[in-house]
Design goal:
Layout: H1 3-27, H2 36-42, H3 46-69
Length: about 70
């Protein structure tokens, strides 16, 4: 398996785990009506999503730096 393919596989696995974690948090409720997590997600504004996107890109950059050192 080449370096590029290994990087893609690691990225897909990390993305799948991150997506599963977000889905778990969003669906975690007590069964009667909306959960607190869903209500909190509905209150987020555009700048909150922008900040989250920047944080995810920063995390990806840090992973890239770690892989270059190895």
């Amino acid at each position: 398996m080449g370096h590029k393919m290994r990087s893609l596989m690691i990225g897909m696995a990390a993305g799948a785990l991150l997506g599963a974690a977000f889905a778990w948090v969003a669906s975690d409720g007590n069964g009667d009506g909306e959960s607190d997590a869903v209500a909190a997600v509905k209150q987020l504004g555009p700048m909150d999503y922008f900040g989250l996107g920047i944080a995810i890109l920063t995390l990806a950059r840090q992973f890239g730096g770690m892989l270059k050192k190895a």
